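I am writing to request your help with a piece of structural work I have in hand. Thank you for your consideration; the sequence and its tokens are set out here:
=====
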Amino acid sequence: MNISDSYIQTFIQPRSELLMEMERFAEENHVPIMQLPAIEILLQMLRIQQPSSILEIGSAIGYSAIRMAETLPQCQVVTIERDAQRIQHAKQFIAQSVAKENIELLEGDALEVDVESNHPTFDAVFIDAAKGQYQRFFDKYSPLVRSGGILYIDNMYMHGLSNLDMKEVPRRKRTMIRNLHHFADWIINHPDYKSTFFPVGDGLLICIKR
């Protein structure tokens, strides 16, 4: 955690027992969930945006989907996960949430799931899945975002690997980091999006569709 993240921690509001339980579960079972400083920024941005529909790519155990749905009671959150074990945990946790009626969990690979048939448009998309596939996720789902809508993309630091010289990156992760760099360069210069990077948590990119 950097200095700015430590300072942000002082502004983090208390969470429900369910959310605290999920945070403990994630830590004990090495499940990646969004870091608290970053999710506080995300939730505040969503409060400002006030979307009525959000698509999340990468549910994990349902933590961020629950946080978004509970923060925005009038919003419908559609979330996609492909890992069978995480799906089961997500279902269990979502069932305990006060916002469970506003969360729809789709099972399968986000690059293959048919979302458009039942959900042709979204006000926001949150991408937090396979980092090397961000370009493909963006290509598939950005057309569903309304003009003026926002795409929120987490893990742009990739646990610090994005900041390293490529020679310092473990060989097995180099392709993923190259893909992430390519995506970052591409979206920052894309004429149809106004993009801003927030150096909080593991790096949050926010792209407003013109």
Residues 27 and 82 are 20 Å apart (CA to CA). The mean pLDDT is 89. The beta strands are 53-57, 76-81, 103-107, 122-127, 145-153, 193-198, 204-209.
